[in-house]
């Protein structure tokens, strides 16, 4: 474990032995660790170089003879190891910066000498689905998606890949087309993703399906026609193209309406929840109206008839003293229900 800070197993065992003993000679550390005495002496000199142990015998020398007679004490682990970790973290940060600089130079060379290697055509829905899973598994910090029809695999409603991503602390933001939420199970799946931690906003439509991993790799269909999107897609590696796609996502994100439970549902300042067997609370209806879903889609998501939906709408408009959907939205926003 200590290899991460430049120390081996022998150094770790000797240091732990000194912490337990409080102080000790090389021979005492040998008895405590079971290591060879020569190995212990080497470990002590190494630990001293890292500031983890000190020879307290004023006459102790730094050679092997001195190590035989010296009495060694360990430094406070919180202080000494903490300093060592901070130093190594600084070194890693510098290495990370160096990697970024080299990566930028590499990309520029690729752009100059082999620009074709920055893109890869992915053919067929199965291959696209597999590539999306690869992107999710490889994302380290941030995933940005524009979600629109058609679906890569309509039969697959598993949220396990996204759940693993969110559990790893990856920031996930998505802009959904209203048509996606209106599809069978679309609203419920979006709500589940939101509960897991994904940030979702909604627009009437999105111009293209898009997945961007860590702002370095992007996957999008080559065709804008819904019936041809599954034919082929293009994987774009870090370049001005990925920067432009990130900018597109951010513009759409700013325009989107947030998806999620209404403020009324969180604070209790709003329509009372329905009793057992009654229709779903009106906060769900408000959220779907705010997302721009049509009556048919809302009724399907709530699993009620359009006639029942009209009754619910009438009750909601009455509570808000509104005569139209638009006025209901304004009144709901004023009351903090949205």
UniProtKB/TrEMBL annotation:
Q: Which UniProt keywords apply?
A: Coiled coil
Question: SMART domains from the xrefs?
Answer: HTH_LUXR (SM00421)
InterPro entries linked: Sig_transdc_resp-reg_C-effctor, TrmB-like, Tscrpt_reg_LuxR_C, Tscrpt_reg_TrmB_N, WH-like_DNA-bd_sf, WH_DNA-bd_sf
HTH luxR-type domain location: 282-332
The answer to whether UniProt assigns keyword Coiled coil to this entry is yes
Residue ranges annotated as coiled coil are: 85-112
**Pfam hit, one:** TrmB
Coiled coil: present as a keyword of the record? yes
Q: Which organism is it from?
A: Streptomyces violascens
Q: What is this protein called?
A: Transcriptional regulator
């Amino acid at each position: 474990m200590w290899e991460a800070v430049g120390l081996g197993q022998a150094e770790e065992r000797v240091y732990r032995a000194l912490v337990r003993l409080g102080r000790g000679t090389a021979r005492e550390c040998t008895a405590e660790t079971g290591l060879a005495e020569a190995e212990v002496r080497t470990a002590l000199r190494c630990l001293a170089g890292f500031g983890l142990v000190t020879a307290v015998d004023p006459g102790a020398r730094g050679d092997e003879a001195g190590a035989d007679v010296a009495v060694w004490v360990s430094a406070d682990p919180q202080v000494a190891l903490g300093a060592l970790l901070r130093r190594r973290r600084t070194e890693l940060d510098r290495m990370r910066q160096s990697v970024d600089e080299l990566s930028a130079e590499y990309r520029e060379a690729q752009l100059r000498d082999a620009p074709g290697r920055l893109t890869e055509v992915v053919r067929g829905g199965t291959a696209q689905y597999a590539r999306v899973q690869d992107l999710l598994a490889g994302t380290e910090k941030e995933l940005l998606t524009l979600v629109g029809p058609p679906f890569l695999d309509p039969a697959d409603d598993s949220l396990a890949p996204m759940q693993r991503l969110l559990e790893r602390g990856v920031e996930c933001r998505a802009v959904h087309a209203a048509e996606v939420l209106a599809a069978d199970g679309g609203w419920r799946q979006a709500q589940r993703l939101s509960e897991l931690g994904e940030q979702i906003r909604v627009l009437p439509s999105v111009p293209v399906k898009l997945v961007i991993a860590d702002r370095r790799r992007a996957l999008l269909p080559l065709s804008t026609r819904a019936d041809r999107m599954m034919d082929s897609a293009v994987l774009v590696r870090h370049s001005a193209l990925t920067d432009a796609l990130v900018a597109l996502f951010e513009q759409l994100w700013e325009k989107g309406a947030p998806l999620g439970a209404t403020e009324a549902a969180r604070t209790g300042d709003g329509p009372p929840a329905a009793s057992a067997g009654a229709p779903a609370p009106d906060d769900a209806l408000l959220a779907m109206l705010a997302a721009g879903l049509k009556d048919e889609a809302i009724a399907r998501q709530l699993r009620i008839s359009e006639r029942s939906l009209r009754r619910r709408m009438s009750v909601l408009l009455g509570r808000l003293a509104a005569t139209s959907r638009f006025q209901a939205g304004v009144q709901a926003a004023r009351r903090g229900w949205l």
